[in-house]
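Q: Now give one record:
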Amino acid sequence: MIESWAQDNGRGRHLIVDCEGWLLALVVTAASVSDKAGAKLATARLITLFATLQLMWADSGYNGSPLAEWMKKTAGITIEIVKRTSPHAFQVVKRRWVVERTFGWLMRYRRLARDYERTIAHHEAMVYWATVFIMTKRLARYETGQPQPRRWGGERTRPVQQAALSTGS
């Protein structure tokens, strides 16, 4: 799945993730670069690493026959556009939530919520850095057999009561 997100600061981020939401390719561009051009740049990075990819789902911003033809001819990838059914109502759309979840994971890292980086290379490094942290946490839970922590509801742990520092005398 490929999708982009842009902030007000003038940068566009184009992510390609697998079905689990893991980052496969990333390109950071100026916000003036179109989604289709960003998709070509991200796909160029992707095909050097994963040559057996055949199908890619994409946001409606990547719609268009020139991009689909380029992807098929250059990378051998069929691009399928995942469109929203209603623009003004919330509805879970197949495969779109995967990349949205990845953006949510990345936005939990403070350096990515705001653009503190001066160069595109530094911003890309921060995204990869956050991805490594996310993957490491999940792999550690998997290896130790720990369940994924609940985010909402359920019992909350209370802080331990500490003894008073002075006796008051």
Helices lie at 35-49, 65-75, 96-107, 110-113, 120-144.
